[in-house]
Amino acid sequence: MSFLDNWFANKKAGENLSRPILNKILETMRESVIVIGADTRILSSNRAAYNAFARQNGALDDKRLSEVIRDLSLHEAFRKALEEDNSSDLELEIPNVESRKYDVHIAPIQLDKTKGAIGVFYDITQIERLETVRQEFLSNISHELRTPLTSILAFVETLEDGAIDDEENNQHFLAVIRKNAQRMHRLIDDILELSSIESGKITLELKKVNLCSLVEEVFTNLSTKARERRIKLANKVSKTTFVFADVVRLEQMLTNLIDNAVKFNAEGGSVTVSHLQSDAKDVISVSDTGEGISSEHLQRIFERFYRTDRARSREIGGTGLGLAIVKHLARLHGGEVSVTSALGKGSVFSVELPHNN
């Protein structure tokens, strides 16, 4: 309950409130507040209400409520307050360029001996969005864990039913169990890593890093994967190129980007790492010769668990969190990550890092 709700709850029945006092109270509130008279014209409102509802209409005062907010349930709640002295609570969605949701409390009020009604609008848009993100996250986690768990349980039951004595297949079954257990382990590691980054628990140790040497280290670590798919790794970064970054986190970003470029590349293709420098930033680019990403996916590619091809991602073992981690680490450096791509022409992921000021 807000300050205003408490104030009205403690007033004596029938006690009047002057308009100047009400206006002073309203301007102290973060919530949007609208007061209407018996003719449904707005008698008073605050700055928050103006910012939320004015749009191109200009000032709210003296306008009819229907000119500002067109919602039948809201108008009915104000009518009950005016004609029946009843308070109401409702949820309201205001469609606009960016849709917003409100919990609204409406109550009768006596203003300068005139009967009126007051509506307090609590903006719950961000809360609703966070709840949606939470539900999607839990749904994705459940799905991503259920798939390897189902496989592990199935092969364990097969072994228990006698396959453990099958010398031709028991090692294969155990290898499948190990592969799925490792997949779950990577997923949990990535979840914990992303959680630490988002909660601000990670601090950076920024210093000059030889980019060419670091790229070579990442190439060495991923060389087996690249050979298996006949992917050529090309380091086009000058040996004298230095960037200002946390070496561990930069290696993590490069590993995620290059690993993806190898996994989602065309067999026999190539992955190239290059560098461009401007007055304000360093741009590290990882390009591949894969099938590319359609425009409908580009806007969401850095979201947690978002995949353009879920079946293929699971087949090759991705967790769906790698690009989200890259995004957050780049921003932690004061930079950004972006992607350009066209179907059939491959993709280029670029990390921008600011210079040391």
Salient structural properties:
357 residues, alpha+beta, Beta-Lactamase, Helix Hairpins, Heat Shock Protein 90, 5-stranded antiparallel β-sheet, 5-stranded mixed β-sheet, 12 strands, 23% strand, elongated
> Portion of residues in helices?
40-55%
How many E strands? 12
Output the helix-strand order: HHEEHHHEEEHHEHHEEHEEHHHEE
Q: Hey, roughly how much beta strand do the residues contain?
A: 15-25%
Mean residue pLDDT: 84
Structural class label: alpha+beta
Q: Strand order across the biggest sheet?
A: 2-1-5-4-3
What this model shows, in words?
With 357 residues, the chain is α+β, with helices and mostly antiparallel strands. It folds into three domains: 3-123, PAS domain (Beta-Lactamase, 2-Layer Sandwich), CATH 3.30.450.20; 125-202, Signal transduction histidine kinase, dimerisation/phosphotransfer (DHp) domain (Helix Hairpins); 203-357, Heat Shock Protein 90. The chain has 13 helices and twelve strands. It has helices spanning 3-9, 19-26, 47-53, 65-68, 72-84, 125-160, 170-198, 211-221, 223-228, 247-263, 295-298, 310-316, 322-332; strands at 32-37, 42-45, 88-94, 100-111, 114-123, 206-210, 232-235, 242-246, 270-277, 281-288, 336-341, 347-354. A five-stranded antiparallel beta sheet has the order 2-1-5-4-3, sandwiched between helices. A hairpin with a 5-residue loop joins β11 (336-341) and β12. α7 (170-198) packs parallel to α13. The chain starts with a helix and ends with a strand. The model has no long low-confidence stretch (mean pLDDT 84).
